[in-house]
């Protein structure tokens, strides 16, 4: 499974998200590749799941990715809930 | 032997080894260690390739600006100046970054300031700044690396600590801190906001039109500013100078292509830095969790954006206004002209906006961020003369703590030479020890009370 985290610069917020999701995956024993990426270069990416913040929603929602949006990138519980739900949906 | 020395002098190899050590220490599988190490090295090489594109188009801009306005025009963009820094100080920069992080961990482990700075690109930029400024002061070799690492490690703890009282007001806890080298303007913006504003009228009570979020797309915002800048500057430059730069081609087309080339270089530099950081930052985080168990991670500024989305937009606009106002004042001061950057105005302005809103609401945010933008666009002018040859590079650092650190270390070094810099390190050490003793005695008192 390929997960891409996205933010404006591709090395701040997205990297923080990537590290959180890596922890979440490890905790739930799920094997997936998580990559941090910027808005500009994400278009060519193949991803099963895209995770980003609501601020970028208007620029990502029409790109055809399976995307989830998080509000607060340091709220690990909320991220875990959303990411695990999306992963479970993917498995179906 | 020659091979070994050359091998370890290559900054790309040094950052590769950093990643390698990190990945091994975290007991990652062999495949991850190999790919991670290679990706880091290749990331650095990509960064170097982008550097030359940026240097070319900055050269064009500098020549045209000089001819058009008879003044030095400077683009304060970290990615551009760091591209130039790595050509001369690549090895020193990479080593200062690695050892600076270790110094950060040691400080966090043994003092009461538990901050661990995890914003990789800012670490890299600060390491580059310190390498350049310490060289200008007269340091070299091992001494340069040691002093640079100590200063970097100290800065990585001091700046989140400075911002924390204001940051806490926003997030409501001490679980994270600000890992973004603009502590100076963040504190000033928040304090100004507190004095002049009113907390009761929050930015979040009003309606702000959406649609400015495209500034978060760094490629577009850089391209827009560079297009305007290159076209205007080259049009106003002497005809002979402009056509010489364009090698006889059409001047407008040449302006457009130069702006695009700068942006492309910027994208390549970012791509390289990103590839490198994607391996190094998680490794740093893993190591810090082992060495400093109760660490407070200092993270990049957008972390606090969701706490006040309106303040993000208002802070950006007010900072941009402040930066433009300063840009218009600068020509009358005899200082070099700083061209307002959209990226610092957005990221720093937005974060300052969120911090300022928690102190002084809407009015405070507007005034505080205007001041923030003005300072951001003024301070780099004072750094230029201290950067040695890099001062003539038509680009410089864009965030206030790089500039502030550069000015402090550079001026102290200029007046008191190396002894002054060691004195500065001594003062920092005393402050750390003092703070720790104070907090320990506080804790001891607190626990006594409980037991009594």
Folded structure, characterized:
The complex is a heterodimer of chains A (92) and B (452). Chain A has 92 residues and is an alpha/beta fold. Chain A has one domain (2-91): Response regulator (Rossmann fold). Chain A has helices at 13-27, 57-60, 76-91, and strands at 2-7, 33-38, 49-53, 67-70. In chain A, strands 2-1-3-4 form a four-stranded parallel sheet, with helices on one face. The two termini of chain A are 13 Å apart. The model of chain A has no long low-confidence stretch (mean pLDDT 89). With 452 residues, chain B is mainly alpha-helical. Chain B has one domain (2-388, 400-439). In chain B, the strands form two sheets. Chain B has a three-stranded parallel sheet. Chain B has a three-stranded parallel sheet with strand order 2-4-3. The N and C termini of chain B lie far apart (66 Å). The model of chain B is unreliable at 448-452 (pLDDT under 50). Classes of the chains: A alpha/beta (92), B mainly alpha (452). At the A-B interface, helix 1 and strand 2 of A face helix 8 and helix 10 of B.
Helix and strand composition category of chain B: mainly alpha
User: How large, in whole angstroms, is the Cα Rg of chain A?
Assistant: 12 Å
Largest sheet of chain A: 4 strands, parallel
**How would you write the strand order of the largest sheet of chain B?**
5-1-6
User: How many separate domains of chain A?
Assistant: 1
Strand content of chain B: under 5%
> Judging from the principal axes of the Cα atoms, what is the shape of chain A?
globular
Query: What fraction, in percent, of the residue positions of chain B are helical?
Result: over 70%
Which CATH architecture of chain A would you pick? 3-Layer(aba) Sandwich
Strand proportion of chain A? 15-25%
């Amino acid at each position: 499974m390929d997960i891409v985290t996205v933010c404006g610069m591709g090395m701040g917020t997205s990297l923080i998200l990537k590290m959180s999701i890596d922890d979440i995956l490890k905790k739930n024993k799920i094997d997936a590749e998580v990559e941090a990426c910027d808005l500009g270069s994400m278009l060519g990416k193949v991803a099963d799941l895209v995770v980003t913040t609501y601020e970028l929603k208007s620029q990502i929602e029409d790109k055809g990715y399976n995307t989830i949006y998080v509000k607060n990138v340091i709220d690990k519980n909320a991220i875990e809930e959303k990411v695990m739900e999306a992963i479970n949906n993917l498995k179906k | 032997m020659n091979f070994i020395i050359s091998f370890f002098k290559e900054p790309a190899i040094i950052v590769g080894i950093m990643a390698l050590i990190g990945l091994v220490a975290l007991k990652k599988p062999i495949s991850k260690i190999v790919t991670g190490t290679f990706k880091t090295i290749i990331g650095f090489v990509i960064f170097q390739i982008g550097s030359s594109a940026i240097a070319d188009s900055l050269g064009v801009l500098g020549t045209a600006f000089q001819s058009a306005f008879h003044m030095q025009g400077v683009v304060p963009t970290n990615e551009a100046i760091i591209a130039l820094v790595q050509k001369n100080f690549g090895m020193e920069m990479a080593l200062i970054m690695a050892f600076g992080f270790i110094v950060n961990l040691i400080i966090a482990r043994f003092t009461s300031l538990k901050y661990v700075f995890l914003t990789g690109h800012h670490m890299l930029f600060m390491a580059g700044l310190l390498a350049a400024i310490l060289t200008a002061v007269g340091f070299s070799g091992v001494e340069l690396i040691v002093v640079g690492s100590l200063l970097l490690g100290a800065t990585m703890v001091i700046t989140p600590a400075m911002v924390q009282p204001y940051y806490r007001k926003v997030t409501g806890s001490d679980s994270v801190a600000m890992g973004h080298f603009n502590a100076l303007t963040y504190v000033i913006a928040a304090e100004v906001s507190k004095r002049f504003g009113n907390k009761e009228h929050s930015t979040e009570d009003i309606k702000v039109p959406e649609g400015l979020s495209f500034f978060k797309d760094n490629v577009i915002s850089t391209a827009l500013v560079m297009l305007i800048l290159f076209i205007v500057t080259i049009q106003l430059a002497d005809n002979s100078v402009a056509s010489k730069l364009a090698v006889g081609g059409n001047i407008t087309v040449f302006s457009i292509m130069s702006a695009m080339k700068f942006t492309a270089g910027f994208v390549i530099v970012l791509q390289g830095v990103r590839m490198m950081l994607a391996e190094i930052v998680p490794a740093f985080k893993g190591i810090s969790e082992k060495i400093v168990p109760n660490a407070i991670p200092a993270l990049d500024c957008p972390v606090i954006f969701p706490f006040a989305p309106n303040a993000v937009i208002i802070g950006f606009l007010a900072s941009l206004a402040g930066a433009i106002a300063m840009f218009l004042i600068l020509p009358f001061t005899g200082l070099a002209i700083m061209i307002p950057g959209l990226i610092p105005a957005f990221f720093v302005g937005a974060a300052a906006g969120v911090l300022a809103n928690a102190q002084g609401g809407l009015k405070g945010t507007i005034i505080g961020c205007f001041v923030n933008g003005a300072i951001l666009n003024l301070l780099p002018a004072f750094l230029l003369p201290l950067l040695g040859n890099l001062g003539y590079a038509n680009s410089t650092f864009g965030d206030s703590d790089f500039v502030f650190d550069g000015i402090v270390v550079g001026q102290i070094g200029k007046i008191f030479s190396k002894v002054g810099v060691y004195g500065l390190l001594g003062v920092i050490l005393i402050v750390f020890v003092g703070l720790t003793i104070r907090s320990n005695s506080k804790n001891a008192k607190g626990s006594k009370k409980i037991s009594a």
